[in-house]
Amino acid sequence: MRAKVIVLAGPSGAGKSHLAERLGLPALRLDDFYKDGGDPTLPRHPHRELVDWDHPDSWLPEDALATLEQLCRDGVAKVPVYDIAHDGRCGWQTLELDGARHVIAEGIFAPDIVAGCQERGLLAAAFCVRQHPLVTFWRRLVRDLREHRKPPLVLIRRGVALLRAQRSVVERAVAAGCVALTPDECYLRVRELPS
After folding, report:
1. Which single residue of 53, 56, 173, 185 has CA 20 to 30 Å from 36?
2. Which CATH number goes with the domain that contains 76?
């Protein structure tokens, strides 16, 4: 294998994408592997018709793992581009390692690929990026409003629900094999990995 995977899990808004950019490594956004909004297999919130985008059945983990395996083996892979505002894929792009020995796999569903990466011999490390829940809530809300991801009232309601669930998100990631760290702690740990 040309490279190994560094998994960055954590609550939405905790700083996973920002940390991936800061590290300067190629990054696969696992959010790009969401199912399209019209997919009949998408999970729904109980008592409502809304899609539950925070449910693990709302994305395609096997597609993500296959892409990571190809990327680590060949150094290049074609990856989907997902538009959250339109609930669907809007194209494809090519992700290249350009000689990097590590690739970041980041997203809220990252814990779901830790075991698969380990089984395939791809895993270098797995971290759960965490911050104080109110910091995460505010960062997520500002980002989602700026990017017009959903109507403001939906974003606020979702944000409050995610605020309440943050502890369980971190606990789930740790149970899957991730080490919970702040973004700065995680940055230092990644920099210490052998290249």
Report:
1. 173
2. 3.40.50.300
